[in-house]
From TrEMBL:
This is Nitrate/nitrite transporter NarK. Its main location: membrane. Residues 15-541 form the Major facilitator superfamily (MFS) profile domain. It holds the Pfam family Sugar_tr. GO terms for molecular function: transmembrane transporter activity. Keywords: Cell membrane, Membrane, Transmembrane, Transmembrane helix, Transport. Gene3D superfamilies: MFS general substrate transporter like domains. It is a multi-pass membrane protein. It comes from Andreprevotia lacus DSM 23236. Residues 543-564 are annotated as: Disordered. It comes from the Bacteria. One of its GO terms (cellular component) is plasma membrane. The keyword Magnesium does not apply. The keyword rRNA processing does not apply.
Amino acid sequence: MWSATSSLSGDERKVILAASLGTVFEWYDFYLYGALAAIISRQFFAGVNETTGFIFALLAFAAGFAVRPLGAIVFGRLGDLIGRKHTFLATILVMGLSTAAVGFLPTYAQVGVFAPVLLIALRLLQGLALGGEYGGAVVYVAEHAPNDQRGRYTGWIQTTATFGLFLSLLVILACRSLIGDGFDEWGWRVPFLLSFILLGVSLYIRMHLQESPVFQRIKQEGRQSRAPLTEAFGNRRNLKRAFIVLFGSIAGLAAIWYTSQFYALLFLKQTLRVDPQTADLLMAAALLIGTPCFVVFGHLSDRIGRKPVILAGLLLAAVCYLPIFKALTHYANPAIAQAERNSPVLVVADPATCHFLFDPIGTARFDSACDIAKSALALRGIPYGNDVAVAGTPTQVVIGAQVIASFDGAGLKGAELQSRIAVFQQALEAGLEKAAYPAQADPAAVNKPMVLLLLTVLVVLASMTYGPLAAQLAELFPPRIRYTSMSLPYHLGYGWFGGFLAPVAFAMVARNGGLYAGLWYPLLVIGTTLLLGAALLPETNGSDIAANDPDDEPASRPAGASAEVAAVPQPAVALQPALEQS
């Protein structure tokens, strides 16, 4: 039977470990924020009502994704100009320091509005660093790999995001257990402060890396790019490749990754009201079981091609998501479905007063009676229907035979608005309790084995599409501009299509009222990517990534440089010592 580590030499394992371990730590740093979003909203966005604070917390999480393409441009350019190793060191340093700094930030109660401003500034720095990290790790490992095993090698890099999420959940669980009730108050800082230790380990490992052999060959032959951005995206052929891989592969894969792992965890906690520790443990177990599949599917793509594996994963996700999330509800909190059948909830409102609760720049006020009612129900994880009220009549929430009036918060300021919202939420909570809507999932009713199985299936779906992606990206672009060319479309896809998934999904649920309305966003992205990928995505398996693309020749070449870039013999590349002697 094939083993994930069989036939790898010691030096090859060091290449993979050195590139992967630092990337795991970077993802750990990045996902701490998402895993602690509910606590972050209370600590840093306390100046607004609970629902708006949660929306702002999700948007601040998304802000880190929004700047990832800029990080891809900055660090991708450096990686093609000065090399992979030094760029590695820069990205891990920025990520580690900005994450650890979150642990020292004052809260809203201490310094007011400066708290969220400082938090978002650090999130932007994290996004910049991550924008350069992934491309460097992929390029470094891919340029050490033999042509016929590149999917297998780079599959390890694909595990790093999942392992990073797993590590963040594990550390949070440990801190919750050790600190107890003080975790929500001050203990949440500890996982961020631990980044100092991870930063030290990562820097030590990466200080001992050698440069990629392909980059060394390019440098020796005088073929380094003098203007990576211009050559990468000023060349029509490269630009076309970037668009094809963005919309025919990365966008859908990003939607799958964040739906299967991050949104699924939010769905358990926020919608199904499963105890956070139980939800974290179940997701951590699913990640541990499913993560090896990233390497398995990467290796499978070495045998049958990148495109068939990725397209099959897209198709399965499109077909399976709705049934899987409905099954999660059935096995994690069946009382919600039972209460909905017995006492359906209906929001009766003038549609003109109901808004889409998505504001990426944080300037909108969602304070109409309809917005207040719908956002409270969505935050509480209550499914509801919609009915049209006569213009000018007040918004009402109907729970079975009960009627609860909402209020218009326009013109109300600060404490007065929050006080009115609190009164409304108390009345709403009393009505929901009377109708047997559970405030929390009953621990005895949570079918943990089935929930674990469903979460593991979601992780496997993510691994099926994500596992071959790194090899595909490395094979699409020529070596001189590979770092820049692959980093930008990757982070546009994962930063924007994936990073904004949580707040867009929440806004869709709040607008529509259905528990599964948020899934229509990833399903639309996945379906579009499946069609475009089937029609336009090229097969790259087996490409010699050391060879230069003749259409991407630099405009000028130093005197004496040869006209062709010799392909680096693959065994030499694969066996190139990755670490210098200490």
